[in-house]
Every structure is written in C-alpha cells, then in structure tokens.
Amino acid sequence: MAEALDTTSQRTPDSAVDLSDLPVTVADLQAAADVVRGAVVQTPCNYSRTLSAICGCDLWLKFENLQFTSSFKERGALNRLTALSAEERQRGVIAMSAGNHAQGVAYHAKRLGIPATIVMPVGTPMVKIENTRHHGAEVIVTGATLEEAATFARTRGEARGMIFVHPYDDPLVIAGQGTVGLEMLKAVPELDTLVVPIGGGGLISGIAIAAKALKPSLRILGVEAWLYPSMYNAIHDGNLPARGDTLAEGIAVKSPGKITTEIVRRLVDDIALVNEAELERAVATLISIEKTVVEGAGAAGLAAIMSDPSRFAGRKVGLVLSGGNIDTRLIASVLTRELAREGRLTQLSLDIPDRPGQLAAVAALLAEAGANIIEVSHQRTFSDLPAKATLLQLVIETRDAAHLDEVMAKLGASGLSARCT
Which phi and psi (to 5°) does residue 45 adopt? Predict the structure, then answer.
C-alpha cells in the first residue's frame, strides 16, 4: 500500500502560500506557454467516469503520454533550447537522461537545427534509446545510474564546449514543465488536488508554482517509487535506500535537484511512495480502462490513488499521465502478471500416475469446470516423485479468483493433488 508522507504538517489547505524569492515565477510559466504553443501538443485533460467510480473521487487525466515524443519533457526542453543564443546553438547541446528528456531535447534540437548529444545510463529501455537516435541525436549509453551519466555528460560537454541541458534542475526547464499545470487549471478550474510523479522534481515544481499562484488552496501530492524515495529523503533528511530496478525508471533518480528540492519543500503538501505491484496494477488498469499506454513513471499517480482511495474520497483530482514510453515486451509482462494477481491466469502442479489417459482425464475435469488450458508440460526426470509418477504442470485461465477456487475444489474432489505454484 502506498504510504503518504506529510511534508508540510503546519500548512492548512486555505493558508496563504509564499511564492516570493522562488527561482521560477508564474510569469516565467506564462512566458514558457507562449514559447511552446503550437510546437507541443496541448494535451487533453479528460474526466474518467470509470476510474472515478473505482477510486471514489472525481478524476481528470492529463494525457501527456500523447505528446509527439510521448512525454511532458518536450515542454521544458523546448523552453530551454529556445533561450540559447545563436553562438550557443552552433556549439550544440548535451544532456543526460533515462529517456524522456533525451527524446524531448533530441526532437526539438533537430527542429531548431541544434546539434545534440544525449548520454543515457545502462539499462535505459531500448525503445527510448532508439527513439532518441531516430530524432537525430548522437546517443552515448554509459553509467550505471543517471548520476554517473550526468558526470560523463558534463565532462564531455565541457571538453567540447557544448551547452549542458539539465533534465530538471534548470529554471527554464521547470517553467516549461509548469505549463502542464496552467493547462490543467484552465481546462478544469474546479480541481482541488493534483497528483504528480516525482523524479528529479522538475514537473512537480513547475506545476506547484502554477497551482499555488492561481489557486492557493489546491493540494499537491507528489509520488515516488518505493525503490527511489530521493525527494522524500531530501525533504526529511531521511536515509531510505534508493536502489534496484523499478518499472518507473523515468523517476528512478537518486539525487533530486537543488532548485526543485527547495520548491517542493515550500509548495508540495505530501509525498506518497508506491511499490512495484501498485505501479504494475496502475499501468494495466490504464490500458484496460482508458485504452492508453503509460509507462511506470506515468502511472505512479494512479498507483497512489488506487492504493489509498480514502485520502482522495470526494475530492476533484487532476492526475498527470506524464509519459508513455514503455517496451512492448514489458507491457506484455505487466499485463500477464496482473492476470495472475487477479486469479485469471494460474500455474498448477499436479502429481499424477504416468499412465495413458491421465492427461485427458485432467483436461476433461478442467473443461467441466470452465477453465481454459494455456500451457502443458510433464516433468519426469527432475522430480522427487516415484518413477511411476509424473509431475504435470499446467497454466490455466479462469474468470477470476472465485472461479479459480471452484476449479481447485473440483480437482480436489476428484482425488487429484493440485497446488498453485
């Protein structure tokens, strides 16, 4: 279950918010909106009747996965690139990214005639690497983490006189990302809560500035993966570990930005952490219900809401689907694993006599119970069963968990020793 972590316990929903001395202002966001208008998609912010019913709140989805590069990152990248002088454009830019910032920089750099080099950490999904190359950038894959890739990018950029375009800790980038918030509040002014994924903090920082400037009472919840609670650690001086492979690699950041951390500390109301199963469930739910493909980071907000619906009950919630760059193989794995969690896809192991007709008998029982056999395998050699027995392993499809219980009961009543594995 997602855990909500209060970062501003002294703030009440209606209290005034001090926006002075911040490195980014709402005027900067409005200027960025003029820059990106017509060059990025003003994505829809649509009400979801089905998800609202499931979650117990009024839920609007901001479909940033429908950008040309399938991510909000285009906004900040374009705002930063547009600000370069003619001499800086000639020198070219370099960036480090786990994928979405890479594509945003590569795509708009090509549009603007700016040479671009992107450094991506080892383990970046291949779809993001190939898409970045397709947009015309030179791609270098190196570094075990985003931080190591950043060190390499800065060193290479300094040696070649290139301009470093940070993915989140840059006022112009933050302002560009904040245009998401301006659009959401214009489309749905009655929103009272925004749920935003946090990686380095650029998106939530920009959205928070927009929200608190235009509607100070609006509540903002940030969401991180349990495996990478970097912003929570930064805000609370915590030491929760940041490690491992997460479905939400787009927000797998060990060190959030200095600028973004200060903005989050002042403007964001809470941070929630979601685990891998919750992320997978959210990705599968968005495909199943909204028919939209969202990567793990983009589904983090829905994961937080679905895992703790009581804290959103009756509220008008805006949710940012921040990106949709996910490998098709990974989508298949997520959907299959979700079927297993729902009891719709199950692996069974049965000990049966090694005699003709036994498999047919089991198949007949399953057919009578309404279960569909997906895979079959016999194991005679690598088993501790008697030599005259065999281990039968089946993958079966059932309607739901209750139907699976019925199938298991029928097998048991027939004298078969069946177990889920």
Answer: -125, 90
